[in-house]
Amino acid sequence: MNLAAGLRGFAERNMDESVFRGAREAMTPCACAFERAMLAGACACPLATRRNIAEREAVACASAAARGQCAALRALLQRNSAFALKLTRTDRPLPHAKQMKLECGGLRGLAQTCAGAANGASALADVRDLVQSSAAKFGGLENLPYSTIVQSVVAYQIRRRQPQS
Questions:
Q1: CA-to-CA distance for 22 and 29, rounded, in angstroms?
Q2: What confidence tens digit (pLDDT) does each residue in 61-92 have?
């Protein structure tokens, strides 16, 4: 393959990605703050709506207010987990593996903190209720016991790919 053909292929892939981003923003104006955890099946929410865009899947939130509270929790999780995730800057998008640790581990830690170790898994069946009840229990999202929650973020293991045979 010559250089011109390689550059043309690169430009087409980037164009496709920008078209996808535009379509995604149009179809999911209120994207779920815990979208990757939802798509991985680690949690659920009654306000979540799954949408298929081309070969990909996106999760939208039916409530702008709920999305705002979840986004605030996600930002607080990222800020409080920065050292544990070895992040030097928290204003940049996270790599996929760290994003999964943050979302899945953070929600799991929050569920264990609020509902107790025995009921932690069932609390992940309704993320909206988990966020609201934890904010009520601790007097706001800023007052959550992040030192305990961050331990779950660090301990969370993402699923490894199976070797293809």
A1: 10
A2: 999 999 999 999 999 999 999 999 998 887 78
Question: 């930002």: which residue's tokens?
Answer: 75
Q: What pTM does this model have?
A: 0.81
Q: Catalogue the long-range contacts made by 155-163 (C-beta closer than 8 Å, 24 or more residues apart).
A: 155/105, 156/100, 156/101, 156/104, 156/105, 156/108, 158/97, 158/100, 158/101, 158/104, 159/40
Distances (CA, A) of 28 to 69, 71, 111: 17, 15, 27
Tokens 């800020």 sit on residue = 79
In the predicted model, is pLDDT for residue 118 greater than 80? Answer: no
Q: E-assigned strands of 54-95?
A: 56-61
Residues 6+ apart with CB under 8 A from 32: 38, 45, 48, 59, 60, 61, 67, 70
